[in-house]
Amino acid sequence: MQQPLRERVADPSEGTDLGTLEFDDSFARTLPGDPETRNFVRQVAGASYSRVTPTRVSAPRLLAWSDNCAALLGLSRPPIGGETVEILAGNRLAPSMRPYAARYGGHQFGTWAGQLGDGRAITLGELTPRPGERWELQLKGAGATPYSRTADGRAVLRSSIREFLCSEAMHFLGVPTTRALSLVGTGDIVIRDMFYDGNPQPEQGAVVCRVAPSFVRFGNFEIHASRAENDSLQRLADYVITQHFKDLGPPSPRVYERWFQEICRRTALMIAHWMRVGFVHGVMNTDNMSILGLTIDYGPYGWLEGYDPAWTPNTTDLPGRRYAYGRQPDIAAWNLARLANALHPLIEDVPALEHGLEVYAATFTASWRTMLAEKLGLTNLDREGDEALIRDLFGALQQTETDMTLFFRGLAVASADNIEPLRPAFYESGEPSDAHRSRLVSWLQRYEARLKVEAMPIEERIARMNRTNPKYVLRNYLAQQAIDAATEGDVSQIERLLHVLETPYDDQPEHEDFAQRRPEWARDKAGCSALSCSS
Ligand code: AMP
Ligand code: MG
User: Fold this and answer.
1) Pick the catalytic residue: 287, 297, 317, 403?
2) Which of 103, 108, 138, 147 to mutate to test ligand 1, by most ligand atoms within 8 A of the CB atom?
3) Residues whose beta carbon lies within 6 Å of some atom of ligand 1
């Protein structure tokens, strides 16, 4: 039985209809475009983008909508079918839209992969709802482009639900991220071999409308540098600085250096936040690294359940675990070094580039330390013994499979005399072994002694810890349950879950079921613990 999404007739007094808005085209207006306008797969030279129109879908229907993202743009919720949804599906363009696909390259799993580009993402245009704001609207899954290589330009419902939900969940967690406005079902079938095991299946197609100030990646610079397109490289850098790093002033050799340092700083902050909330991106290739330091391209990502630095959700990554949780800080540094190489024609001063990488390391270390202190309800981790306290905590979390999110949330109200609040965090039987219990209790005794040094009132400490230790994250199996329901026609679960994830630090007594450790049935279920890149 189809469970329709909350239907609402557009009320012009609430906000504006997408089709009536004026779209800017600053990226394509400013940068070198591909002179070829026919849509066929090819290598493109010199250009930063290619003009391309989305390919029609047969029966678009709105499946989910983010009111919060819409408010950014001054949009009201549209009816589930109609003109706005036609635009969000790629079937119709607003008069001022001039769509394009961006050209970029990238290092994938440590190896230069050459030209990649927007193979299924098409930018519709940019909205400027308020002075100083610019929001690019991009459809993912909108059909083939010159960069589609051997693929079809489409996206399946399951991966689109995951991108829609996680973009918004990350925003509400306070993690820098691209946003998602809408999820539209296309009514078309897409064929995917989910586990690359020679078993292709028909799946429902979908399109997500993503929103960010810009979707420029490290790879946009790398492709120009790799082809010695230094003029295009400089124009792209000047555009990004002028449009998105205004505080740095007009582009100059000195400003390029400061710009690279700022990219390093923002990337460090983003990674520290990932570590704080237990997010694992899964495919940290340089084409998936935003130049603005935003989390971008939600594919086979996952959330730590049991704390384990070696965990990766991406089955494609299992052999090397390159993109495992604990490796993310090093991989971001490696990616920034690739960006540094690409920017070398602009920043010939190698020590300045090296300084940027030092800024990354210093910012990450300082941010992660601050966040860890906050997670523990401490004002700093500068005292003697603090290093050991942290090391022993993570050692204990790994000794027995312990849910990271539930552990930190419970820690605010646990004590050596009462480990009850931590009990929901233990997998297996939900019961720590005697050895583990005594290790935990002795750690809690040291922790309590450390808390006493701070003399922070208990209520204040609990409130502070609860502001940084989320109660609700997009647990892998929760996303999968919303996917399973939607695949059967009940899309209401998507926004129901989104609603809970909009206030992830609040106790929501009516939604305790969304704050439980992963049930055992989900341990090895596809989509809940292991994901491929197939999407
Ligand atoms: P990803 O692993 O999702 O970051 O994608 C890597 C590259 O493959 C990018 O250039 C994507 O645009 C492209 N790509 C991924 N899936 C598709 C698809 N279904 N159709 C066309 N291009 C795709
Ligand atoms: Mg990508």
Assistant:
1) 287
2) 147
3) 116-120, 147-148, 151-154, 283, 287-288, 297, 299, 533
> Atom 15 of ligand 1 has which residue's CA nearest to it?
119
Measured from the Cβ of residue 6, the count of other Cβ atoms closer than 10 Å reads 9
Report CA(382)–ligand 2 centroid distance (Å). Answer: 39
Take residue 236 and report the two structure tokens written for it.
């792209």
DSSP strand E in 381-509: where? none
Token reading at 38: 């026919």
Tokens of 315: 């089955």
Angle subtended at Cα 481 by Cα 432 and Cα 79, rounded to the nearest 5 degrees: 145
Which pLDDT score is estimated for 11?
47
Decide if 200 contacts 191 (C-beta within 8 A): yes
Q: Which residue stretches of 59-150 are H helix?
A: 67-73, 83-89
31, 49 Cβ separation under 8 angstroms: yes
For tokens 């007594």, the residue is 509
Choice from 49, 116, 288, 335 to test ligand 1 binding pocket (greatest atom count within 8 A of CB):
116
Tokens linked to 201: 């299946």
Percentage of the chain lying above the pLDDT 70 cut? 97
Residue 12: is its pLDDT beyond 90? no
Backbone angles phi, psi at 221, to 5 degrees: -80, -40
Mean pLDDT, residues 12-32 taken together: 86
Q: How far is CA 144 from the centre of its chain?
A: 23
Residues with CB under 5 A from ligand 2 (ion): 288, 297
490 is catalytic: no
Q: How far apart are CA 258 and CA 41, in angstroms?
A: 37
Which ligand has the nearest atom to the CA of 109? 1
- Amino acid of residue 132: G
pTM for the whole structure: 0.96
pLDDT category, 1, cuts 50, 70, 90? very low
Q: Domain residue spans in the chain?
A: 18-219, 235-375, 386-455, 476-522
Q: How far is the CA of 167 from the centre of ligand 2 (A)?
A: 14
Q: How far is the CA of 217 from the centre of ligand 2 (A)?
A: 9
Tell how far the Cα of 149 is from the centroid of ligand 1, in angstroms. 8
